[in-house]
Amino acid sequence: MNIKPIKTEEDYQAALSRLEEIFDAPDGTPESDELDILGLLVDEYEKEHYPIDSPDPIEAIKIRMEELNMRQVDLIPVIGGKSRVSEILNRKRRLTIQMIRRLKERLNLSAELLIRDYELLK
Predict the structure, then answer these.
(1) Name one GO biological process term (predicted).
(2) Residue 53: pLDDT over 90
């Protein structure tokens, strides 16, 4: 096992290749330990060099609705009438504090995510 920090893109690619080689290593083997350590190193490198932004509030709501097999009509008790739900999901109107509170509870999304600014369509 020859593990070193991942400092360059070349190091990163080499680590990914090695991970592929030892991916199915049985537990308790030196390769399994190497897999665990390389996985952590690759994860840290990716967080620094390939960050993934959180979705904006509307995208987060849509993603969560899909996960929960919800339709727009299911948000009427949370947001308001059918047209209000449509306006929110189509970025024609902003979320209110009351809507954010209800969405936080109903969809189990963080308030921090829901209060983020987002673009309205004109």
Answers:
(1) regulation of DNA-templated transcription
(2) no
